Amino acid sequence: MPRYLTKSRFKSAIECPTKLFYTGKATEYANTSSEDTFLQALAEGGFQVGELAKIMYPGGVEVTVDGHDAQEQETTRLLAQENVTIFEAAIRFEDLFIRVDIIRKRGNKVELIEVKAKSFDSSVEQGFRGARGDIDGGMLPYLQDVAFQTYVLKRAFPDFEVDSFLLMADKSKACSVDGLNQFFKIKKVNDRSSIEVSSNANASSIGDHILTAANVNEYIREILEFPIEAPGVKGFFPEIVKRWSEAYAKDQKILSPVGAHCGKCEFKNTTSKQSLKSGLHECWLDRKGLTPKDFEDGMVLDIWSFRGKEKLIQNDVLRFADIKKADLGWKNEDEDFSHGLTTRQRQWMQASQSIPGGESFYLDKDLLNEARSQWQYPLHFIDFETARVAIPFFKGQKPYANIAFQFSHHVMNQDGSVSHQNQFLSTTPGVRPNYDFVRELSKTLGDVGTVFMWSPHENTTLNAILDELNEDSSPPSDADALRTFILSLTRKKEGGKTLHEGSRAMFDLCDLSKRVFFHPLTKGSNSIKKVLPAILSSSEFIREKYSQPIYGSKQGIKSLNFTNQVWWREENGRIQDPYNLLPPVFSDVSEDELAELEMDDEFEINLGGAASTAYARLQFEELSESERFYIANALLRYCELDTLAMVMILEGWLA
Predict the structure, then answer these.
(1) Which label site among 75, 456, 477, 647 has the fewest CB atoms less than 10 Å from its CB?
(2) Is the Cβ–Cβ distance between 543 and 557 less than 8 Å?
(3) Is 414:407 a contact under the CB 8 Å cutoff?
């Protein structure tokens, strides 16, 4: 089996050249990246975008034969034609091998077109450069991908004049037909996914193009002509690619220096893969002498939201025990805590593994009570589930437009009583949920009481629906009422200025958590899925209340999806995470795979999260009624737990 440097392996090498040694060794090295192509297809929308792109280039011939040699030979035969469009063209030069999404050849002029589900706004003129004039960091990996392909194509066919393009989902273009996504349904057979393209999908039926081809020649020249950098490497493109391809062909490990980039390494052990080796641990043992035990005890890579990791690593400040306050930017040993925890204070608690006063966790009751004095009962706790997909579900919708398909709502009264008040879930294919979502939310929240969210996601979602209402050429008859409700709950800032702030603007419990609470179990994070287990382990009130089957009982707490549920459970001396008590969202997908699609932290919601992935699956797939019921029921339970988690956290703080 030939060992070629492909574009995916080139991408790994740019991140860290040592990864080339670990990649493709699934039976030897642990890899935390989800390898389920079905889930990736749902999460990223890349497969659907790829099929839509083919329809934009009618008459194209796809290279479908198996094996590198056969694919290369078929491509070469097709390229001998004067004019041809090829999908999945296979090009090889020495030990470099690529599959190009689309090649359009007219004489010796060739367009290399890489299709990405990445969002792009063709109405913005600054192109792909940042404020300082260099290539934007978010676009650089995509452009390096195209540069690698362009390099291989030009080396394999030096007589071609190559123009390079990125074909992307254009957020400035509105879909002109309903149900465009339904033309590209995902099928799963034996853990592999494929796209079933409707027989009705053609250049006419797909309507106006929502994908735009951006010419990237300028950036490709820059990448190919100027030195490129990777950990431990700086050199010109041909030299670096040659070195990497030779190392991969010979299965030789490139010894890259360790650094802050190791924090995102996928070649590390997970609980379910302890029999496999950890590439991450191997690197740190070889370069810095650190053992797996050092990783367990805490090291600089683990410090929450800290940008100075690289400097500390280069200075051999590696373990928590090595870190001093000054390393985290402290200038005053006795920094004031009276205005809430700062990032530095949270980082020091994590690294020093000590809490002021020798407590097991930190809770600022004074600041908590100060915030509480501003709240109005009843307290409302809401959580939204949303989806943003590359190919719109509805006419008039733009790529990656917001779809709000689910909410959960808990209420806490002044006497401390709690109930799961309401919920909303819309998963029927072809039904546009946003306006109904807001209508139902307005009914359930009424106009009295403080409304809580965890992170700004709910605020962002409602503002997006407000923009949709304002841009709608045929708004609903109750548009003014919907606008008024949204404006009352939201705030919007732009360029440091507050554009509006509602009289009942939602209160962010995540922001409060950052200022008043720290527990070692959270490892500095304020994700609700880290804070909840910490509260369960530290609050006697929560233990006594939720270790009883009161949730969903007639005399206990009203629930819409649970009956006599016990949330506080202990197993082998450890408190169980309530989320682990729920059935998986998908009966045919493992928990490890789903974990890769979940929220990264409280700041960035991964668009491939389990809920949004489920929504896409319900839209794209032909599912039986029992399968639809299973997924919908799981979604309702997860969303209910999200708002109950907010209740339990607040109860634990206030007890």
Answers:
(1) 477
(2) no
(3) no
